[in-house]
Amino acid sequence: MSIEIPPDHPRRISLETREMIIEGHQKHIVATAGLLAHGRGEAFDYFIGETTTEQSRHAVRAAVAAMLTAEHPVISVNGNVCALVPEALVQLSELTSAPLEINLFYYRKEREDAILKVLRDAGAKEVLGTHDRPSETIPELSSNRRKVDPDGIGRADVVVVPLEDGDRTEALRKMGKYVITIDLNPMSRTSVHSNITIVDNIVRCTPLMVEFAKELRTESKEDLRDIVQAFNNEKNLGKSLEIIVNHLKAKVVEDIGGSLEQ
Ligand code: PTJ
Fold this sequence. Notes:
Elements: H1 12-26, H2 32-48, H3 54-69, E1 73-77, H4 79-84, H5 86-96, E2 100-102, H6 109-121, E3 127-128, E4 136-137, E5 147-148, E6 158-160, H7 168-174, E7 178-182, H8 189-193, E8 196-198, H9 202-216, H10 221-229, H11 233-254
Parallel strand pairs: 1-2, 1-6, 2-3, 6-7, 7-8
Antiparallel strand pairs: 4-5
Helix pairs in contact: 1-2, 3-9, 3-10, 5-9
Bound molecules: ligand PTJ.
């Protein structure tokens, strides 16, 4: 870490997470645009109270149940995700038999190499989506994300796309895939078009996904399918937005001593 953050600093976790992203950028793991993406995430995290809500736990449980009932689940990895939670990703991948696939919007070979190294150092035995692997194309996408691994996203029925930009989720949905995302912004296109959106910081909810995977993997497929079917993403996003609004209202009253009344 480039700076020492005092243990009693009130914003220690947020600052340490920011440092991980900066360091990831220096090591070519994180794209320059990834710094901005992280800032947007920080703002939404502040709005939600920098905590894992009951609503997030509910979405995490459904997401893990969907991964455990899938024939071919896969976890798509970009620079930010790799910089923040490599070990948890590898654990989740193993517990749910969902391979990790590197899929970059801002592709550069040196970034792919840096990400591959971090995942391998974190214990990943197999990583898909690298340049030496076969690739196929997602129709309707023009960005570099269109190139996918036929053994990963190509054949997957459930795709986890954390911290995702733009229009890939819609393209994946059109291909009949079930999409799970992690996004602190419940209003993003990805959040709205996914089957399950975990509105939480990836640094908090990925370890929680690992815990749920350990717990749920002994459940019957039937029970797991029931959990998935009972989940409604529209309601989930509505409640997440409500949590944000209520938290902001409380901030106005408690911290600033103001009122929302005219
Ligand atoms: O590594 P690459 O080349 O594939 O590029 C990755 C980035 C993240 C740069 C790219 O996917 C991008 O530009 O993403 P966006 O459009 O900024 O969207 C990222 C979403 O993730 C935004 O809605 C953010 O609010 C959200 N986000 C950012 N940090 C976190 C987060 N959500 C959860 N946890 C975070 N730590």
